[in-house]
Design brief:
- The protein has 124 residues and is mainly alpha-helical.
- It has helices at 3-11, 20-30, 36-46, 55-67, 93-115, 118-121, and strands at residues 34-35, 71-73, 88-91.
- Strands 1-3-2 form a three-stranded antiparallel sheet.
- Helix 2 crosses helix 5 (93-115).
- It is elongated and about 55 Å long.
Length: 124
């Protein structure tokens, strides 16, 4: 998400849609702090394999999300964590708000489809 996109989330009544990979990274971190590989695995699992994100792409998105203030490196690590694991990341309050705005946008889209008559809705 570019900085201009994040500014529009704050200023625009209808924030722009998040890219699927960005949405799924935020969603993966909404469960709590996790390391990069755990977040990449969560993206694959929660999308049913429809969103596959490689290491370079994941860290490019993560770097942008950190720069935009949506994600931070977590200060705490689980006590039983493998010390070879890299940094852990978590959503910021702003990241939670952006994710909530995306949920609202998606819910409005589903409501608009549900409001169509069955003939106009198309096959399920």
């Amino acid at each position: 998400m570019a900085r201009n996109d994040v500014r529009r989330v704050r200023q625009h009544p209808d924030p722009p849609a998040l890219k699927p990979a960005v949405f799924h990274v935020l969603l993966a971190l909404a469960e709590g702090a996790t390391h990069g590989y755990g977040a990449m695995r969560a993206v694959r699992d929660q999308s049913g394999g429809r969103v596959s994100i490689g290491t370079a792409s994941f860290y490019r998105h993560l770097t942008r999300l950190i720069a935009d203030g949506l994600v931070v490196e977590a200060a705490e690590r689980p006590a039983d964590d493998d010390p070879r694991r890299g940094a852990y990341y978590r959503l910021t309050p702003r990241g939670l708000r952006v994710l909530a705005a995306e949920r609202t946008r998606l819910a409005a889209l589903v409501a608009a489809i549900d409001a169509l008559t069955p003939a106009r809705r198309g096959p399920a």
